Automatic annotation (TrEMBL):
This is DUF8198 domain-containing protein. InterPro entries: DUF8198, FFLEE_fam. The lineage of its organism: Bacteria, Pseudomonadati, Pseudomonadota, Gammaproteobacteria, Moraxellales. It comes from the Bacteria. It holds the Pfam family DUF8198. Residues 17-232 form the DUF8198 domain. It comes from Acinetobacter tandoii DSM 14970 = CIP 107469.
Length: 234
């Protein structure tokens, strides 16, 4: 079985999302994603502002939690599947596994946030500016606690994989050698998605520790939301 086959399933999940065919939902989803990013920047300001952490913080905010160019990335992945056997010969196996894990997380983030966006459209006028209270109530109504915890578990696994597989000089050298081919065949967005992960990890002593520090705080917020805390995001 192809090591890239799992991407087919992930793309199918992505294209089944309702916002692709609903402009109002798409706008509300963008609002939710922006709120998420701003909230994470506030919550993790001390962690994200450490010099060596800044690139990974940006990778989290712009890649794993709803990047603006994910539609372009999805189209390139879909096209890659036509050349799957050639791609597997060019891209190191560990880079494929780790890149796939990143794609899975990015899609899961959109899935979860779309459900929030749908709930918001049901409860409020479409153009109502988002507040922490609106988001808190939406999380409670949707009961996303377990889904959000699963998201954090996958993120912890990605952090461990980055340390285990992607710090190899040989892996990164092999990956860099693919750049010319990737750009020649218009797989630039996909290449940059993976390259950003490499670059973000480089200044860190441990990607796994960076992720653990992040997910520990996120778990506290999830617990506060579902315990009825009126100000869980502060």
């Amino acid at each position: 079985m192809s090591k890239l086959a799992v991407l087919d399933d992930l793309l199918e999940q992505y294209y089944q999302l309702q916002y692709h065919h609903n402009a109002e939902l798409f706008q509300r989803l963008q609002d939710v994603q922006m709120w998420q990013k701003q909230r994470m920047q506030r919550t993790h300001h001390q962690h994200f502002s450490v010099k060596n952490n800044q690139l990974m913080a940006q990778y989290f905010l712009n890649r794993l939690y709803g990047g603006p160019d994910f539609d372009a990335l999805a189209k390139q992945i879909a096209r890659l599947m036509k050349y799957v056997h050639k791609a597997e010969k060019l891209i190191p196996e560990n880079a494929i596994k780790t890149g796939t894990a990143g794609v899975e997380l990015a899609i899961l983030a959109v899935q979860l946030d779309e459900r929030v966006a749908l709930q918001l459209l049901e409860d409020y006028a479409p153009n109502t500016p988002l507040t922490d209270e609106m988001m808190r109530l939406s999380y409670l109504k949707l009961d996303q606690g377990q889904s959000r915890l699963h998201q954090l578990e996958l993120l912890d696994q990605l952090g461990a994989s980055l340390d285990k597989y992607m710090r190899s000089f040989m892996v990164y050298t092999a990956f860099k050698m693919c750049k010319g081919v990737a750009y020649k065949h218009h797989f630039d967005v996909m290449y940059e998605f993976m390259q950003d992960g490499f670059l973000a990890m480089k200044p860190l002593k441990s990607a796994e520790q960076f992720v653990k520090d992040f997910t520990a705080i996120e778990r506290q917020i999830i617990a506060k939301v579902h315990a009825g805390d009126l100000h869980p995001f502060q």
